[in-house]
Amino acid sequence: MKRFRHYAGLWGILTSSFIIFTAASSFDSISIGRHELKSSGLSQAIFGKAQTEDVQSAPVFENDTVSIIQSCNPEPVPVDTAAQTILIIGDSMLEGLVPRLAAYSDHNGHKLYAAMWYSSTSAVWGRSRKLQRYIERLHPTFIIVSLGANELFVTDIRRKRERYVRNILDQIGEIPYLWIGPPNWKADTGINSLLRDATADGCFFLSDGMQFRRAKDGAHPTRESAAEWVDSIMRWMPKSAAHPILMHAHTEAKGRPAKLWVHQPDEKDIDPDLK
Fold it and tell me: What is the CA radius of gyration of the chain?
């Protein structure tokens, strides 16, 4: 009995020492007076490496073409599950965006309308009341803008374009919106910075930095790559958009909008008040 008590006391001392030593090794270092004790690594060896990485330092999408980090709202906004009337306007990038976006819209009970103006820019749309007329006609509950690809290399871009970008946003007014940034194939002269600054928080998707497979012109993403672009945006939306709408993924690669309007580059539609 005395021998048992002797060993029990010894085991108690060893167990206590082990717990303290293991706990201490969980920290990178501990300072005691002027002395600093380095971690022995015992804790990692027993329990595995602690998950200490900042979640915002990891890519938002693990299997996307995205190679940049999209900032997330600290507290994501609840998804609006109501059926939407979506209007997307923009340049020829809509050729790749609309089919996949239409598939999402069909699958989630939304109605998608598209207005594509070839070779258009923020200046073309910003000097026109075309967007306002579409809004008055369709009464969209959500608007998507895809402009900027034809303005990657405009010099002194803020002076030349900011008022037009703001004219577009003024026409959108209080309607929830998302501006999709251009899929850069070269460094731009400031269009992405301008769009990010002009739009509200959670209303701009930065596409610059993504990896795209390009069509023969070297600028437009292929249809397959454009579909992945849309997939990335839809995965970003619940975590980061100011007004996320229901966009569950669909197996169909493409769909058709309820209506598509196509405007040619030489079409004149300038409002004198917006010059």
Answer: 27
Q: Is 105 helix (H, G, I), strand (E, B) or coil?
A: helix
- Domains (range + CATH), the chain: 2-52 (no CATH), 85-274 (3.40.50.1110)
Q: Please give the mean pLDDT across all residues of the chain.
A: 81
The three-class DSSP label of residue 38 is strand
**Residue 198: helix, strand or coil by DSSP?**
helix
DSSP H or E stretch at residue 179: strand 177-180
> Cβ-count burial of 167 within 10 angstroms (0-12 exposed, 13-18 middle, 19+ buried)?
buried
Helix (H/G/I), strand (E/B), else coil: 88: strand
Report the C-alpha gap between 19 and 2 in whole angstroms: 26
Q: Is the pLDDT of residue 28 over 90?
A: no
Three-class secondary structure of residue 28 per DSSP = coil
List the structure tokens of 3: 């021998």
Chain centroid, CA 10 distance in Å: 60
The model carries a pTM of 0.75
> With pLDDT > 70 as the criterion, what percentage of the chain qualifies?
72
